[in-house]
Amino acid sequence: MRKHGSQTVEVTQSLEAFGRYKSRPAFQDWIYRLKKGERLPRGRYFVGKKPGRPLQIIDDFFYR
Asked: Where on the tree of life does the source sit, at the highest rank (predicted)?
């Protein structure tokens, strides 16, 4: 049921980070610590990646 003045938002999620066989948390942490304008280190893991944290939306809705 929608309330007056609300908008419908469609969201898709992927299990890319959860389904990896060999996760690399140290490299991912390095990417997250960099700011948006900084350069990533050279290496095959960092090819095609962007520095900075991705946008994370946390959906917590509680009824009273």
From this structure: Bacteria
The pair of structure tokens assigned to 43 is 């290496």
Query: Which alpha helices (DSSP H) does 4-62 contain, by range?
Result: 25-33
Nearest to 28 by CA among 51, 57, 62, 1: 51
- Say how far apart CA 45 and CA 50 lie, in whole Å: 11
Domain residue ranges in the chain: 22-51
Q: Is this model's pTM higher than 0.70 or not?
A: no
Report CA 49 to chain centroid distance, whole Å.
Answer: 12
